[in-house]
Specification:
The chain is an alpha+beta fold. Helices cover about 40% and strands about 25% of the residues. The chain has two domains: about 140 residues, Jelly Rolls (Sandwich), CATH 2.60.120; about 70 residues, Arc Repressor Mutant, subunit A (Orthogonal Bundle), CATH 1.10.10.
Length: about 220
């Protein structure tokens, strides 16, 4: 198996050990990879497919807060070494998905013997904190239209193909959850992008015609 991107900074021997300890899992669309509240005992690397990160809102509803694609990872909380760590979100397959799950105990055992791996774990956790901090700042200070554009750019990267339009197979409701906005307001933002010829909204999907031009709107 090719060494996943997140492990490529490790010496070959350590990366090989983690791969040998890992298990390849396959999931069908709508399968739950991990459940919010379950014991967090493994770190997962996305090998293929896309999955939604879902949380429960204070109103008791389920909302999508992120989309994961190949080379993304989840389960960092299992690496913290806390007693009885719990999953903080559910991960649901949006299509056929493959992951590599590595027991957290293997990471912790290696960390005790290899400072290089401890640095990797610290880096993984630090990047996740940075991502969450950026999302908070974006939600507090960016306009809804700017958040819609940023999220569409990120989704275009995740669903990118070799050429042509990028098909983002999400509904407007799901996009609204991702940007933290009301559906009517998100619809208005999308309509402005449609009028500019950047996207096309269809039933259950959004076509991004020019990802590069769309990305320039975030600058």
């Amino acid at each position: 198996m090719k060494v996943p991107k997140v492990l490529q900074s490790l010496p070959d021997a350590d990366a090989k050990l983690l791969l040998q300890a890992g298990k390849v899992n396959t999931y069908a669309r709508r399968d739950v990879l991990v459940q919010d509240g379950d014991v967090a005992d493994s770190f997962h690397i996305m090998l293929g497919g896309r999955a939604a990160v879902r949380v429960t809102t204070p109103a008791g509803e389920s909302a999508i807060v992120n989309i994961l694609g190949p080379d993304d990872h989840f389960g960092e909380v299992s690496l913290l070494g806390r007693a009885d760590p719990r999953r903080t979100a559910s991960i649901v397959a949006l299509e056929s998905v493959r992951t590599l799950s590595i027991p957290a105990t293997v990471f912790r055992d290696l960390c005790e013997r290899n400072p290089r791996l401890e640095q990797l774990v610290s880096g993984i956790l630090a990047r996740r904190v940075d991502e969450l901090s950026a999302q908070v700042v974006e939600a507090m200070y960016d306009s809804l239209e700017r958040r819609v554009v940023r999220r569409l750019c990120a989704l275009a990267d995740i669903y990118a193909t070799a050429s042509g339009d990028v098909i983002v197979p999400l509904t407007q409701d799901e996009l609204s959850q991702l940007v933290g906005g009301a559906r009517p307001s998100v619809n208005q933002a999308l309509r402005r992008l449609v009028d500019e010829g950047l996207i096309e909204v269809r039933r259950g999907r959004i076509l991004v015609h020019d990802p590069a031009r769309l990305a320039r709107l975030t600058g």
